[in-house]
Write a structure and sequence with these properties.
Elements lengths: L20 H23 L10 H14 L4 H21 L9 H13 L3 E3 L16 E3 L6 H20 L8 H7 L15 H16 L6 H4 L15 H10 L3 H5 L6 E2 L4 E4 L9 E4 L4 H13 L15 H14 L7 H14 L8 H9 L3 H7 L14 H5 L2 H4 L13
Antiparallel strand pairs: 1-2, 3-4, 4-5
Helix pairs in contact: 2-3, 3-5, 9-13, 13-14, 14-15
Length: about 425
Amino acid sequence: MDQDTGRKKYINLSKLNLSNAEKRKAWCITKAQSLMLRRAAIESGAPLKTETELAVAIRNHRDYLLGEGLATSTINSYGEASRLIETWCRSSGVRFVENLDQPRLENMRKFLVARGAKTPVRGKHSGRGKHSGRGKRAESDRRPSPYTINSRLSRVRTVLNQWRREGLLPRLDSDSIRDSLRNVRTKTVVPHFLHKPEIRRLLEAAARHDVACYKLTRAEHKGRGKPGTTKKYAPIKAFVLAALLTGCRFSELATLRWEDVNLVAGDIVLRLSGSKTGERRIPMDVTPRLLAMLGELHRNRHGEPFVFGGKRRFPRDLAETARDRLMDDFDAPCFTWHDLRRTCGTFLTCSPGIYGGASAFMSAKRLGHGVLVAEKHYVGAVSTIDRAASTLEAAMGIEDLVNNRLDMTATLFAS
């Protein structure tokens, strides 16, 4: 009888080369002593050595994440970490999660560090005749950056620590997990953000992008409509401006609903389901043009649930296509959506006329982080801000660019 699981085990003594009665008796005596010692250890408080299939542990962990009410992106992120653990365990012959120990975690770390970066899938098919789909990514031979590797290691540590708290890793403690799956060395990098001339270039490029028209469409050629009046691209300036002035993550803006925007009180409330770091409020008293822009959007798209997506959330692949087009064809500076978030935090922190002595705290609160995290990853230093600037638009020097009305003649999703 197994003392940990309470189940009977049947052992073939012939396969153990116990060919005579004397050897079998000696084996039984030794086994009886080990069972007695194990029973005493359990009675003294030793943790049970259970046997949990890897697939069962992963499924239970996903149920745990769903029960915690986390954002979908967070659940998918830890789901990817669970798949990495499963891939390594299967290749290493580890069937039960209880068999994981420190030497095995060292080998798992080598696997995680050596795993290639994900790159966009090009072409119509991505192997085995399957259609890749737009926006799909697959592992490549390119080595990921140290920051990507550390993010991967951090998520795996989180999954393992949850299993440890559930009693599924009797051979590991928090120190051994942290030590075995330690981060790789990285260099300190100054947070990248856009300076005032680059912000102007970006908004001017977005304005040219939104008014670009086809020279002549088939309908116009047939006499239906005036030539040169059909918009060429879905507008992007409103989304760019909102990213600059709110400091929101891309996912937060893409899923923003009108029910979360209070145009009367002048604030945006990001709910738990749509925010990575919890619910937070974004006041628009320091960004009056943002409030006016949202009011203009609401009048033109009344009845649609999403602010920037209309009837559905704003798709990432459409935004990335527009971003590439801005940089390649419309002379916009190189930027990412996260750079706009850093730009917002930087100008709010370095503007003495907006939040005064509480600028570091208030800007970090707007981003949804603590002051230390914001200082390390999000906030740079700008010394060219007008001390009298009391709004974020004035601090960025873009008041003249955002006072004009947005072009609402094109639908957000061009057919």
